[in-house]
Amino acid sequence: MPAQYGIIGWPLGHSKSPLLHNWGLRTSGLPGKYEAWPTEPKKLKAFMAEVRARRIKGVSVTIPHKQAVIAYLDGLTERATRVGAVNTLFWAGGKLLGDNTDVAGIVVPLAPYREGLASALVLGAGGAARAACAALQELGLAEIAVTNRTAAKAQALARDFGIQAVDWEERATRPWSLVLNTTPLGMKGEHQGLSPWPADGFAHVGLVFDLVYNPVRTALLEDAKNAGVQVLSGLQMFLQQGLAQFEIWTGIKLDEKGARQLLMMDLLATGG
Ligand code: NAP
Asked: What is the mean pLDDT of residues 170-180?
């Protein structure tokens, strides 16, 4: 039987989505499988025709297709519209729609901390930063700001969301209840061991959320913990965006604890 679910991206690298969703299908006793479909940008149109022809049930979408894929859909959810990007394709009433579960991936882990969050600074101004801004607005934070190595991109994002842009060099000079990293600094590979925040700059930071999840313990999170600051790992986001996708496709809420353990064990086994 052809796969009924999968992920498209280019290059796809070592996505953990097949691990999570195949575990979900197995433990729920559902048929089908979830595959990795590396898809070059020039092949996106043909791929989308195949999704319709084969009635593929669910697709996860990652870089660089999160915006380009919108042209091939029949509509977007309200969250995907707000972000301006899609990470999940699903069928509803015969229509192929796009959602963005990256927002839930950020809202759900932050919800228990909500009361203590007055201000937040988003580091980076790419796709994940857009999901972060939508999530922080959904949580109703009074003050949201963005900062980026390339100032013009932070300013453009700030305009889109009606928030402030802060100069990259000034990022650690003001108090923030939340600092949320959406840059790849700290990620396995060329950025491992790097941090987007000065190690001596945590005196007026309440909580740090690093969207990088491989490795689980990034330089940013280690520095924050050493300074006595509370931390959230990108693994929480990966887990919640994946659980939300599985529920959209199947209506089933997977066991969160089991899914977290599965991902944690895999990341530790692969050096994360
Ligand atoms: P993106 O669209 O390529 O944006 C990357 C951002 O990081 C840009 O603003 C870029 O700044 C900045 N940046 C890149 N290299 C930098 C450096 N050396 N120093 C300072 N800033 C730098 O990527 P994205 O889709 O937003 O994803 C970003 C990261 O989020 C990924 O690497 C991934 O770790 C994480 N993520 C995690 C999850 C999860 O489930 N946990 C989901 C999605 C993404 P410029 O504008 O100056 O280039």
From this structure: 97
